[in-house]
Amino acid sequence: MAVDRARVAAIVHELLEAIGEDPDRPGLRQTPERVAAAYEEFFAGVGADAAAPLAQTISVTRGPAPDTLPSGAVMVRDIAFRSICEHHLLPFRGRAHIAYLPGEEVVGLGALARVTEILSSRPQVQERLGEQIADVIDDSLDCRGVLVVLDAVHECVTMRGPRQTESSTVTIAARGELAEPFARAELVALLGARA
After folding, report:
1. Domain that residue 106 falls in
2. pLDDT digit string, tens, across residues 14-53
3. Sheet holding 169-176, edge to edge
């Protein structure tokens, strides 16, 4: 479902009036259309198939490099993401760290970032976002385990309420073999390690 830009612009115009502003003054005249365009980008993942980026897999035994069969996890760290909190419609942004234990097939590393982008481009909460990423990978790939760690800063915490500008929220979602704390300990340690 595409964002109805005209409707969003009309609502923003009304919102500006509701807060006591003049939406027709020079600085705000184009704001409704700008917000509508931004919302189209922010919410591009609504209705999109998050599993689509994982459809193209590579066989590890019959693929282009069968001598490089992974014996452990495949991890992509520091995938930048941004989303809009569904509670206050304020942004949150951070880094996703995704690992999986491959079975017979692996996926291109960029596909993990695309899954994250699709799912974060919806009204979200961080806790559900991590669970959704883990579910899509677990359901779509032949893998023995999945770990998703999200570390994000929420504007609903930094700009309002407690105004904790230095705080971040960390969530963990795990599936399969990596659902056991002992099994994921090495991967969690790698998140803090830098070469």
Report:
1. 51-192
2. 999 999 999 999 999 999 999 999 999 999 999 999 999 9
3. 123-124, 74-85, 91-102, 143-154, 169-176
